[in-house]
Design goal:
The protein contains 18 helices and eight strands. It has 458 residues and is of the alpha+beta class. The relative contact order is 0.05.
Length: 458
Amino acid sequence: MANEAKTSQIFRKLLKEKGYYDDKDIIVEEQQTNNKKLAKLLQNASKSGIGKGFPDFIITCGRYPNLVIVVECKADTKKHESDTLDSFRDYAIDGALLYASFLAKEYDVIAIGFSGEKEALCKLSHYIQLNEEKDAHKLFQDGILLDFDSYRNGLMESNYKFNQDFNKLIDFTKEINEELHEKKIKERLRALLISGILIALKNDRFKAEYKNYETTQKLVSNLYNSIKAELEQSDVPDKNKESLIDGYKFITTNTSINNPSPEGKKYLTDLIANCDERINGFMVTHKYIDTVSQFYVEFLRYANNDKGLGIVLTPPHITELFCELAEINKDSTNMVRIISGKQASSLMINCIYSTIGAYEQLLNDEKLAPQRAVLQKCNLNNYITPNLIYDKERSETEMNDLMAGIPLASGMVLSGQKIIDRGEIVDDYAFRVLNSFEKEMQRRSANSSEITSTILGQ
């Protein structure tokens, strides 16, 4: 006769082997909970549909307060998982998913189904259901119980969690833009304000103290000074630092940002806190720095509804935005000369990628599309490094050689031709011809008197 007590005993042994009972931060409860929040969520979770219900095991960890593991056991391995996942009373996985659906209103949940009375023949499967999500997803390898830290890390590194958090980050861009629009902060200044906050938060002192400044004036002053300090210590070329720092001066004068009222100070403080928690927090959790470029794409999309910025919303144009701020002029270059040893070749500029561009190209490649999920797990940004080095000296030498071949003269004057007569107005064309003629005479080593008599005429 099937005996679920044996199944639970085997599962306790597995928990003990993985250190669950030895970890002071982990609480393992069986068929009940002393956690009031969990109990409230499970008050209508009965498998019969009426009243409260509890899984066979509820596991929480003080290190990760937003994660719960629920386990449902069945003695018969044939009752491990149904095809429809809705036979809650009869199948282990189905029952675990029922409890997960209630707990997911407040938590990320790992639902484990465990079945069997002989340890060697037992089955173990996992699903995850993320906070506020309706669907559960299969994750982790069947048959293997992991320690709590491994479950948490695996969940956080999963595509499901990444996509959820990334979508929340994009939703945050909408919220910020709506708020800044209400504050009457112009579209072209919004991205600069957010980027300035992120730069200032890299300053340890500002990050530790910004919530404690007594007035808006002190908060704004320290915000700008922190941006300035971080930029001055950065690798940005010195000739561009001043332009970048000047670009952020609007923070000190904008009336909406400098609202002296308690409400104004609270809003700016909360905005900084939200940027730290939701943007920096995302990067710390997922270590996916390239996503920041996509964040700015979306941010500018919502800030540019009236097309007033004239920005084409693709990641390279984010670079162009800051190049414009740093007064780096765009040119018409469409080819790059690449030297490898003694071999030289020309390559179209659109065939050369930044590290971000190379990453996106890999993920968007049609041939690699079936493996996109695998690629996203590989942290490719840790392996993509620049393989071209700008040779400044050689480039300038080549440019000077080309410049030397450009004639200084403009226009053509025939021998004996009168360029301009006394009393005539000197227009642009005549001026260029006279100027070119003078330079050509100098090139031919004509002396000053010859040039003067020739230009003035008789």
